[in-house]
Design brief:
By secondary structure, this protein is mainly α. Helix content is about 45%, strand content about 0%. Helix 1 packs across helix 2 and helix 2 runs parallel beside helix 4.
């Protein structure tokens, strides 16, 4: 989940906009927006590449969405994780 929920990505802006367009206007549990973005990116055919020497230190702030949204954040992450797993079954 740390990969899907990072929200720290480098992508082409136009490809990103194309990938996210299907999500616009759809009622979804978006408390875990980074996982939702990962889902739509993968569904679009985008790839996630882990680079050995590229890293960052992530600290959770008091206003982090996982704190402010509580259980909704977990529900959202699980919702999109299941959708990502289903993509691999096709």
């Amino acid at each position: 989940m740390w990969v899907l929920n990072s929200g720290n990505f480098i992508v082409d802006k136009n490809l990103y906009n194309e990938a996210m367009e299907p999500a616009l206007g759809i009622e979804q549990p978006l408390s875990s927006d980074a996982v939702a973005i990962s889902y739509y990116w993968l569904k679009y055919g985008g790839k996630i590449k882990l680079t050995k020497d590229l890293w960052h230190y992530h600290r959770k702030r008091w206003d982090s969405v996982s704190f402010t949204e509580g259980e909704n954040s977990h529900i959202s992450a699980e919702y999109f994780k299941q959708k990502i797993l289903y993509l691999n079954l096709k």
